[in-house]
Amino acid sequence: MLFLAGMMVLLFTVASAQSTSSADFISIDCGLGVGKKYTDADDGILYVADEPYTSTGVNFRVRQDINSKSDKPYYANVRSFPDGIRNCYTLAPVSAGLKYRVEAEFLYGNYDGLRVPPTFDLYLGVNIWKTVTSGNFTRAEIIFVAVGDSVQVCLVNTGDGTPFISYLNLRPISSFKYSLVSPSLGLLVNWDRRNFGATSQIRYPQDPYDRGWYPFIVGKPIANNSTVTQVNNNEFVVPPALLQTAVTTSSVTENLIIPIPGSSNETTFVIMYFAELQQLPAKEIREFNIYAGDDFFYGPLGPAYLRENVIYTRPTGVSGGLTFSLRSTSNSTLPPLINAMEALVTRPLPFLPTNNDEVTAMLEMKKLFKVNKNWEGDPCLPQKLIWQGVECSLDSSKYSRISTLNLSQSGYSGPIPAFLSSFKYLTSLDMSYNNITGEIPPFVAQLPALNYLNLEGNNLTGDIPQALMTRSQNGQLVLRINNNPMLCSRANLCDTKDGTKRTKKNKVIIPVAVAVSAFVLLVMIVALAVFTLKRRQAKAKATVFEVPSNSMGQKNSNIDQENILHSESQIYSLSDITNITNNFERPIGKGGFGTVYHGYLQNGVQVAVKIISQLSAEGEKQFRAEAQLLTRVHHKYLVSLLGYCKENLALVYEFLSRGSLADHLSDNSADKNTLNWDSRLRIAVEAAQGLDYLHNGCKPSIIHRDVKAANILLNDCFEAKLADFGLSRSYKLDDGNSHISTCIAGTPGYIDPACFMTNRMNETSDIYSFGIVLLEIITGNPPITFDDYRIHITEKVQMKIKCGDIESIVDQRIQGQYDVNAAWKFAEIALACTSPNQSERPSISDVVVQLKECQLLQGSSDSCTDPTYIAHNSVNSATPYAR
Predict the structure, then answer these.
(1) Which position has the higher pLDDT, 531 or 238?
(2) What is the DSSP string of 547-562?
């Protein structure tokens, strides 16, 4: 049975519709000559040309012999957009939080002589609104809540013809109407509002919101010029004239059929208006039931004479593509009737636009820098249309914020513009090789997130702000300012007006125009590396843990070497470990550095005990590395260290009962559940958050160096935790060594190929490995297929992506139960992470944001719950804590 929330008479005390004037309207005759405008004789509305609402496109006239809608002047021309992928109209002003209705019309009229109407996408801001399909005439309408002081309507070329538009309008809507509309949900009219029994349409001024109520003749029309008393309700107020006509059937036995187009996957909201227009004799009765398809919907209904009745569906609506039928009851002597109907479908609006201040600044930037790139629409969304030279992230309110801005070689001349101060989330700014003049303004140093600033190749003068120098000194900012010969700093980097460097012991290391012998520098680096290596070897021979010294330089016998570990970690003896593991009874994993055993603490808590092999040359080193790291890092999505035993190099971890992610992705995992798409997305987000903590939440930051599916473990509710830190390294070690590891480590198939060229591993190496994990998650395949060809997973996916074949990429065991857009975005994130060029890979923070956007597209949850699976086999897996 369909859900029904209906009413015969709505009794509300709020006043009727708020007043609306055509002065609040925006009405654009698209293709009208520049500067032209006119007032329509029928409705008194002022129609204007496209400028200043858009600055792109070309005007065309529609051939009169094909223009079948010559009743309105705006059908005589179109605005066509042959250049660029996205072209937008910016409608302003609007007020955030208020409701508006936007309507667009498209009359092709063979304006281009091709006789092939195009197909293209229509966006409301950053959200898809409608696909304008091939046809001579199309109308699109949407009701929404404004989230800023303007709204953009964008036409996006999808490769099937040149987008065009005939007419575009914006109308304010009373806040009391269309209560289903919210900032995240819009209502779209999927077909014309129906004015049953009428011969002409009703619009403004009869309808103060300029909604179009179009004649629809079905059955037998009836009319009454008397005023119909309307329901005192703001939400469903309609023009009085709409209720003065109706349709009925010829006999009581004939049903009144009202088809509603649509599709079964859309939710349709239907509002029906009824009023008896005939004064019935005493013995006559008009009474009927309403059916949606074959299901009873509402009834019985007997409309009162000249009084409005409203029946509507809410909140679940009904499936589109249904036929409503009005059927007389056994008591009725007259057939059913209906006066008007409105049907709308929902359109999710999941994405919020870029912060308004930043958009304003970007538009100013576009003017100043004379950007010839396709900077149209929102700078950050949709992801596939992000502006060239721009990268974005989400703030706490889910608004996009600009994090990277590349304006290098843009031909700009002048000072650094003041509106750059609007970019509070900007981490990287590249304005190199322009003709920027003047001083570096102080506000640049006050950009809170900025960690990279490139001003090379400009003509800057004056002093570098001290705050900027300090941030560079502290390692908080990479500052590039060379090739600015007149730029001198307060740190006395310059002696002369031509910018010659002055030597100073405590100077800030900033790239300036200096001549340093490459040979001497290379010799110094090699010498330092040899010295450091010998020092490390000497320390390794002396002890596994460094014992603190007292103030006299002597070893303090009262301070045990275990103090280097975190105080929260329990110290166990060898006998404790033997009892915990029941004499090492149950091995649950084995790797290159030892074996993992299942065990129980005295309080009954299950644990996993890793025994580092003392036969391994690296065993003590791995024990020390993992113990030191895990006693200082604590995060929801990292495996917790509960204690250790130095006697037999044992590490005691929390036990995760569901095994590793690799177990559940393997084709050979017959005893494992097949993870569904929602679960895979959630695991990816959780693992990324764990890695994000290592990279950005730890001071100094930590490189994991062995990110792989086998090191992502799952607890009872399949929550993911990153594990195995035996190969992990801090960017900056306590002994002052390089912040980037020079020892290549990891698992074949996951190791960043770039590391073999540089012999270095850094955070982008972890990103590459995590990208391989993402490819495993979406495909269900291992990194390397050990067949005759040994093809790497990146090659396989790239080939299929080029063919546009997402279905063959996604693990077939998911059985098609996924959102295609979410899958595409997920695959694109994975390939970005595995880019051969380290500089092109996203940061792990950006990966977290983009993976959460995949969840939004999928409509999946972040919560830790036992998910639904395609297979329902029992899980009794051990946690593989050893490689």
Answers:
(1) 238
(2) PPB-TTSSB-TTS-GG
